[in-house]
């Protein structure tokens, strides 16, 4: 029933948005199919809706790499192919050489692009040129690291990890890992980015966030019952909450009761950018984008790390051994420091293998700024581009036995450049990657030292919203270490 509804509204929406845009598509096609380089192989799909439904269906299964990309790269024997998604002409890239081309030309040839559902949910995108928007996210994260020097940051993450494990895990025989890890990552982000420490407020925001993630990449038709409608409603509630938080902060800053550098929110209010101070609408959107970008991704990584650790006890033992050694070397100090995190080499290799094995973020979008050519094909200005993460991570050209889980492949020099790209590379790389590393490693340090766990549903299926999640939230039997 839900699928029928989804297909029906998708047809309706895509029919309405793409009629105009498709005529541009074919004009552009004409322009480049004379003599000279041609468009990459591929199909624009159905006359009106292109291949949007196939793309979204693969996205919902967390399988864009093999159900959408690999299927077509195999069919066309090419690293890139053309298609039509969201009423736009698209080129899809896959493989290390394609990654190298994108990441080393990001500032020259491409700008960030977001699909229509994002654009509608974050309306400031209509007013702020996309380059400025992306640059602000980057600047805010770098200011965040400047004012929160690494030691202080690790101490905050350490304290929140321990609190969460003590209050929500300790003394329990069974827990659901996914929602508890989400509680940890979200509590941490609220504390560090917004200075919110009130659990009730955190829970309220988290409730709305859970409704947002379902519809963030969907057909942007706000009809009751659709994921996009739920996301729109969630966004309205989140906006109201965040507007209030901003108002309170402005008042506190005016009375010198808050500091302009205390967190990302203060910086958004107090720091001028190239185009002036951020508007209220922009601040709300940026806060929500940063919270959204950080929450699902780190939650998924920690949850799947714990899942793989329970399935492969020899890896659990290696991680535990490393973390116990670090604890021994810290004595008599108890709180982790930045240099302890730098020693977590095996654990970080293991996390990298988690991110290689499972697509935490399946890919990202760009718009092409000028006509370009790649491997003999032309890519016209204005076309959109999608680069897929998993299609490289599971390619046997770069990773032997790609389906085998093996953290050893990250030892020494590790994989070749541009083959392991969970955060992207270069100027548009994820601005939260270092924050993510600290969040994940500190939590894993404590959870493996405190507990062992066994899945209650060994063959639990995976589902995919904004990032992958175990369908039932990964319930486990928890036992504290006896030694
Ligand atoms: C395991 C964790 C994470 C993964 C795998 C991940 C992955 C990614 C990827 C692949 C991109 C797109 C890069 C590109 O287009 O080249 C991205 C963008 C982004 N990420 Fe992350 N990310 C993670 C954690 C975080 C965290 C913790 C934050 C914030 C605290 C964050 C905030 C963002 C933002 C704001 C963008 C968009 C930047 C822009 O507009 O240019 N991410 N991330």
TrEMBL record:
Residues 1-20 form the signal peptide. InterPro entries: Cyt_P450, Cyt_P450_E_grp-I, Cyt_P450_sf. Pfam families: p450. Gene3D superfamilies: Cytochrome P450. It is a single-pass membrane protein. The keyword Glycoprotein does not apply. CDD domains: CYP90-like. It comes from the Eukaryota. It is found in: Membrane. GO terms for molecular function: heme binding; iron ion binding; monooxygenase activity; oxidoreductase activity, acting on paired donors, with incorporation or reduction of molecular oxygen. Its cofactor is heme. Its main location: membrane. Heme binds at residue 430. Keywords: Heme, Iron, Metal-binding, Monooxygenase, Oxidoreductase, Signal. GO terms for cellular component: membrane. Coiled coil: none annotated. One of its GO terms (biological process) is sterol metabolic process. PANTHER family: CYTOCHROME P450 26, P450, PUTATIVE (EUROFUNG)-RELATED. Belongs to the cytochrome P450 family. This is Cytochrome P450. It comes from Quercus lobata (Valley oak). The gene is LOC115966342.
